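Entry under discussion copied across for reference:
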Amino acid sequence: MRAARKPTSEHIVKIDPIMNRPANADESVPEALVPDVVHADAHPMEPEAPQTRWTRIARRAYELAQQRGFAPGAELSDWLQAEQEIDAAEQQRQAAPENQLSG
């Protein structure tokens, strides 16, 4: 039978009474390298980027052509009407106050 070895001071882990963990815990445990709270620059989902003017005009021109049954010969007037509508809507949007309080 073997005699039990006495622990030497080099194998004793001293616990910090305030934090209740070893003094070198940050270095000894990989989990200690991960903070309890992770701060990220995450933003709530933002609305889709505004469409370009050309895309909005093209979509509206298509709607106008669809309304007239895609009959050939009026593509330019569809485009010009769509352009006028989109530009007018944009001017109206810019002219309206953003933070209008009603009362």
The first strand starts at residue 15 and ends at 16. The chain has a mean pLDDT of 74.
